Amino acid sequence: MTAGFYRAKLPVLDHPLTALFVDCDSFFASVEQHLDPALRGRPVGVAPVMAESSCCIAASYEAKAFGVKTGTRISDARKLCPGIAIVESKPTEYIAIHHRVVEAVEDCIHVEQVLSIDEMWAWLPFNLRDPATVESIGKKIKTTVTREISPFIKVSIGAAPNKYLAKMASKMRKPDGLFIIESKDLPQVLYELKLRDLTGIARRTEARLHAAGIHSVEALCSAPKHLLHGVWGGVVGDRLWHLLRGDEIPELVSARKSIGHSHVLPPEHRHPEKAWPILCKLLHKACERLRSHGLLCGALTVQIAYLRGPAWAPEIRVPETDSTLRLMHLLDHLWRERPDPRERILHVGVMLTRLVTHHNHTPELFQSFVAESMASTENHPNEKLRRLDATLDQLRARYGRSVVYFGGVQESRDTAPMRISFTHIPDIRVEM
Q1: 112 is catalytic
Q2: What pTM was estimated for this model as a whole?
Q3: Which of 53, 214, 355, 401 is the one with CA 20 to 30 A from 285?
Q4: Residue-wise over 362-373: b if at least 16 C-beta within 10 A, else e?
């Protein structure tokens, strides 16, 4: 079946503009150019650690013109773009500027939700949905960001009948764009995009679309709902069918499945004796996040990638807990069982899984841990461990991470700095 079979005209109702999306352009790299005048107008790559084996977590538009992008290996970035400036990431600076951008947007229109470190959206009230009014709001946001923060921090803005299309609109005129998609523009306005440009379509999904005879956004927009349902294997395909037509539909609420932290080790910390404290620090941070979400975990996975040899990622399951001390004993148990104990380590990480909320937790009838390494914590009642964790969390939240910590973290205080994921913005007060 070919894509031409689906070229029937896409019926679109007259939906009003309801969503405005703000996307910061090359945010990390732009902040670096704002902070350092010597970087302005130059290609810039931002790395998590200063190592040639690391990769870019951001690139300026000057660097992107040479083919450097997120995920490009640092050594490859230097080949693609001779003279590129590689700088180490500064998460605290990015978070500070992020909050200032949110405040700038809030001065112009209420921010409905912050989606990531560089994305947010606003719901358009009924009296602010005229395209001219929306355009005026977008221009005001740009002017406010430039005036209150920096002319080197640029935002692209999109507006549309729903949040999904507003996000697409914000990406269609980058950088420093302002684009409005109205119902009357659909679906033709989307035809300039490639399938992979659409949020929710990655390499594997694109392959399934090709197998279904869909090779362009035009064919996707014309495809019947049941076909998209089959490609996605469920309601996600149905949702996209409606979103492309400008329909507003409720968000899918998904339960958190894991909490974890990982760190690529710089050369001077790849010896096991140097890697162990960093692993401890990552677990401490994960446990604090676990408690902040009101969750318990039933499994711990340790992730170790060796400089030479295969990676190792064992999982151990235990009765649900949020105790840092108990999970530290599990971590120690797994660490001692790792293969090649003298081999240098490139990457370490921890993952807490099998998460449950406190109100869904059923205590064990017979209280015991499966690992012998947990035995030393059995003399500490659960309530005592909870009070210990609560006290440590409060002290660290108020005075910083370095004020109090378990002994295993001692040698890692200046390593494994905070990282910013796509969906989790660290709190500066507790991530330092």
Answers
A1: no
A2: 0.70
A3: 53
A4: eeeeeeebebeb
